[in-house]
From TrEMBL, chains A, B:
PANTHER family: PUTATIVE (AFU_ORTHOLOGUE AFUA_4G14240)-RELATED, PUTATIVE (AFU_ORTHOLOGUE AFUA_4G14580)-RELATED. This is Methyltransferase. GO terms for biological process: methylation. Signal peptide: none annotated. The keyword Magnesium does not apply. Gene3D superfamilies: Vaccinia Virus protein VP39, Winged helix-like DNA-binding domain superfamily/Winged helix DNA-binding domain. The keyword Methyltransferase applies. It comes from Micromonospora orduensis. Pfam families: Methyltransf_12. Keywords: Methyltransferase, Transferase. Residues 160-264 form the Methyltransferase type domain. One of its GO terms (molecular function) is methyltransferase activity.
Length: 333, 333
C-alpha cells in the first residue's frame, strides 16, 4: 500500500491535551490516581482492586494509559509506573477539567444564566468535588509552589492558613520549618478531619491546630490567629465579595492586629480581565464565571493594595503566579 | 506597589485552549455562532436577538469574547467582528468539545462501563447534537479539506457520499465541478431536509439527489450509487463493525460494482492505537471510546486494504489526515 503522510508535521495540541485530560479524569472517577502515582510498580490487578472493577476492564484501561504514554513499563515482569511527565500532564489537565467539567453547568445553561442569573444560580450548582479535584491539579504547579516557598522563606514560628482545606500547605511548612506551629482554619468538616489525620501521618500532628470555622468568623473572633508570623489566604476572600465586603474588611483588619510585628499577610487571588496575551483567555473565563455565574467581584491589584493599606498594612508586593490571572499579594505589618 | 512577574514567560496552553472552548461552546448553546462569524459587524443587540436573552446578558458575554480576543472591534461605532484566528480557535475547540463534552458520559460512568459495558452502554448515551457539533468543528480543518480536494481533483461527473449529513461536502463539490451531479445518502431525516435546502440555497439543488436511507441498505439495493466516479464514506463504516461486518463487506462490494471503470472509493476512518508521538494520545482516546464504550472495532490500515482488495479494488493509497488517527483510503476500480 502507498503511504502519504503530508500532515504529520502539524501538531494538534488541543487533541493531545484533551485526550490526556479524559484519561486522567477517568482515573479520578475510578479512584486509582494514587495507584498510578505510587512508587512501586503496579498492574491491572492493583487497578481492578482500587477501582472495584473486573480485571479485564482494568486491563483495557491500563492498556489505554500505556498507549497514551501516561504509564510506562517499570520492569520485565510487565508492571507499570507513571511516566516521567505524569505530574505535568495532571497539571495541564487541571485547567481543562476546571474550565470544561467543574464549571460545566455554566456552559450548559448559559441562556438561563443570561436571562435570570439569580434563579439559574440557585438551580444549577457545581459539583464541589469536581471543583476541588481540578483546583488541586492546577494548584500543584500554578500557585501552590510559590505560596509554599514564600511562607518557608519567612521562617515563621507560627503560620495560619485561612481556608486551609486538607492543610497540605501547612503540613509541608511544618516539615520544612522545625519547631514551627500552624493553624488550619476551614469551614468544611471532612476537610478538617482529613487535615488532622494527614498531619498525624506526617508526624506533625502535635504542631497543627485544626479549627472548623468560616473565614467570616474571624471578623468576630480572631483568637486563632494571635501571634502568627504569616497568615495565608488562597482564593477565599473573593467569596465574600461583593455581598460581605464589610466582613472581608473586618477579617483583614483582624489579621493585621493578630500578626506579630514584621508579620506577613499572603493572599492569593484572581484579578479580573488581565489583558496580556499569555493570560487574557483564561483570565476571561475565570472572571466571567465569577461575575456572571457566581456573582462574585474580583478585585484588581490596585483594589487589593487599597484594602491592605486600609487594614493597616504597609508596602504591598504583587507577584504573578504561574496560574494565569492569579496573583500573590504580600503585605507586611 | 511592587510588581514581580517571574512566571510570565511560562505559557499555560491548556488553560488558554480550555477557556476558548468554553466561550465557543457557550456560543453554540446560545445559537450565536452564525452571528459571530458573519461578514457584517455585530453588537450586543444582534447577540441578544439571536440568543433570545436580555441585552445586558448579551453585552457581558460579548465583553468576555472581546477580552479573550475571540472578537475584535470592527469599526469606530463599537461594532465587532470575529478575530482573524476565530476559525482556528473553533477547530481546536472541536477536539476538546468532542473528547470532554460529547463523550462525557463515558468519563463520568467509566466504573459502570468497566463493570458491565452492555448495560452501561444502554443507560448512558451521548447527546447526538453535541457529537455532531464537535465533529463539524474538528472536521473543518482535520478531514474535510483533504476529502474535498481529493474529490474535486478527480473532476467527477457523479459523486456519492455515504453518510452525507447536511451534504456540505457534496454542495462544495457541485460548486467546484460544473455539470457534475451528486447523491447524498443519510439515515437522518432532518439532516436530509437540511441538505436539500442548503443545495437549493447554493443554486445546485437540481444537481443533488437526497436519499434518506441507511448505509446498510446499500447492501441490498445499490441503485443510488450507479455510475458514480467517486464514492465517499467518512466515519461510517466503523459503525457496522464488528456486529455487521458481512453487511459492511456487501456495501463495499456493491460500491465497487456501481463505480464506473477508473472510479474512486474514498473512505475516511479512524485507525486504532497509532503509536507515533504526534497521534498517540488522541488516537488512544478515539480507539478506547470506540472499543470500550461503543463496542466498535476500528480497522488497521492493513485491514482496510484487505477489505478493499476483497471487494475487488486494486491499488490502495493511505493518506494521513491532519486529524490525528484519521486516514483517507483511496482505492481505484
Amino acid at each position: 500500500m502507498n503511504d502519504r503522510n503530508e500532515s504529520a508535521t502539524t501538531r494538534e495540541t488541543a487533541a493531545d491535551m484533551a485526550a490526556v485530560a479524559s484519561l486522567l479524569e477517568m482515573a479520578d472517577r475510578l479512584g486509582v490516581l494514587d495507584v498510578l502515582q505510587r512508587e512501586s510498580p503496579f498492574g491491572a490487578k492493583e487497578i481492578a482492586e482500587a477501582a472495584e472493577v473486573p480485571q479485564a476492564g482494568a486491563a483495557s484501561y491500563l492498556h489505554a494509559l500505556a498507549a497514551a504514554g501516561l504509564v510506562v513499563r517499570a520492569d520485565d515482569a510487565g508492571a507499570f509506573r507513571a511516566a516521567d511527565d505524569f505530574a505535568d500532564r495532571l497539571y495541564e489537565s487541571g485547567y481543562m477539567s476546571w474550565v470544561l467539567n467543574a464549571n460545566r453547568p455554566f456552559i450548559e445553561h448559559i441562556a438561563e444564566f443570561l436571562r435570570d442569573p439569580v434563579r439559574a444560580g440557585a438551580q444549577y450548582v457545581r459539583d464541589g468535588r469536581q471543583v476541588a479535584v481540578a483546583s488541586q491539579w492546577m494548584g500543584s504547579q500554578a500557585f501552590y509552589p510559590k505560596a509554599l516557598s514564600t511562607i518557608i522563606e519567612a521562617r515563621p514560628s507560627r503560620v495560619v492558613d485561612l481556608g486551609a482545606g486538607t492543610a497540605r500547605l501547612l503540613i509541608e511548612t511544618l516539615l520544612a520549618v522545625p519547631g514551627s506551629t500552624a493553624v488550619a482554619l476551614d469551614l468544611d468538616g471532612s476537610a478538617c478531619r482529613e487535615a488532622a489525620t494527614a498531619a498525624k501521618l506526617a508526624g506533625v500532628g502535635d504542631r497543627l491546630t485544626v479549627v472548623e470555622r468560616s473565614i467570616q468568623s474571624v471578623a468576630d473572633d480572631p483568637s486563632p490567629l494571635e501571634g502568627a508570623d504569616v497568615i495565608h489566604a488562597g482564593f477565599v476572600f473573593h467569596d465574600m465579595l461583593p455581598d460581605e465586603e464589610d466582613v472581608a474588611d473586618a477579617v483583614l483588619s483582624n489579621c493585621y492586629d493578630a500578626l506579630r510585628p514584621g508579620g506577613i499577610m499572603a493572599i492569593t487571588d484572581a484579578v479580573p480581565f488581565v489583558p496580556n496575551e499569555r493570560e487574557r483567555r483564561f483570565s476571561t473565563i475565570v472572571t466571567y464565571y465569577h461575575q456572571q455565574f457566581m456573582r462574585r467581584r474580583l478585585l484588581t491589584a490596585e483594589e487589593w493594595q487599597e484594602k491592605l493599606v486600609k487594614a493597616g498594612f504597609g508596602g504591598t508586593t504583587c507577584i504573578a503566579h504561574r496560574f494565569p490571572t492569579g496573583r500573590l499579594f504580600l503585605a507586611h505589618k
